[in-house]
Amino acid sequence: MIINPLKIKSEAILLFCRDIIENYKDQEDTPFAVDPKIKQYVDQQIDQLYKAINITCQPIDYYIRNQRVSRIQYIIRSYEFIGKCIEKELKHNTPFNPSMLCFALLCSWFAELSIAQDDKEFLYFSLYPYSEFYDTLLLETSNSEYKSLNISMLQIAEQTITKLHSFRFNR
Prior knowledge:
- Helices cover 70% and strands 0% of the residues.
- The chain is built from 8 helices and no strands.
- It has helices at 5-24, 36-56, 60-65, 70-89, 98-112, 123-127, 130-139, 144-166.
- The protein is globular, with a radius of gyration of 16 Å.
């Protein structure tokens, strides 16, 4: 069986983002004052992203049930690698913006590196207008601490994606 490592890593990123969304979707705790219009925009974009991920990826029980399949094992390894990279960058109890982190991970992988741009199952993520999201969270936000947090999420995502791109599945 031929395994495409870029597709595997793409799916792992999507699953990681889905888990972030599921864990932080309804969380109202933000240490920063954010314009309600920006919050509403972000919530709408996250909802759209979540729906697209669920169309593209299988439910979590599929991956659990099939974890002995080599393709799924590689997806799980990639997922764990992403988690470890991000965990190293985030200090304990450091605030972070899960929305910006998700979009920055996807943008770095699909838009900046142009990974999977010809794969129909990832077309939505390759064509998504990430710049609009960035403009909203970086340019339209007046809170300088919130901007700084979003920039740090962008940096963490770019570092993680760079490492993931060179990650090998060897045991």
